[in-house]
């Protein structure tokens, strides 16, 4: 992980947002709940941040709005 990425994660954690999804608990059966059982909290926080960044990057690239997975038909 490069210095820029580490700096962004450190900034995110300093402002209290880094483990928001982790501290509130994850839905049963989700990848986040499974990861929290097996991995350290910091590793899961970074994985969650990376997943969110990939989703945001894809939305910006395709110029589309967020689609909630719970409401999108399968």
UniProtKB/TrEMBL annotation:
Source taxon at top rank: Bacteria
What protein does this entry describe?
Transposase
Organism in which the protein naturally occurs:
Mesorhizobium delmotii
């Amino acid at each position: 992980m490069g210095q820029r990425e580490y700096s962004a994660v450190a900034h995110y954690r300093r402002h209290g947002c880094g483990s928001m999804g982790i501290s509130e608990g994850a839905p049963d059966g989700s990848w986040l709940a499974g990861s929290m059982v097996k991995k350290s909290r910091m590793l899961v926080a970074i994985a969650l941040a990376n997943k969110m960044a990939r989703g945001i990057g894809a939305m910006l690239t395709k110029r589309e709005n967020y689609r909630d997975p719970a409401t999108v038909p399968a």
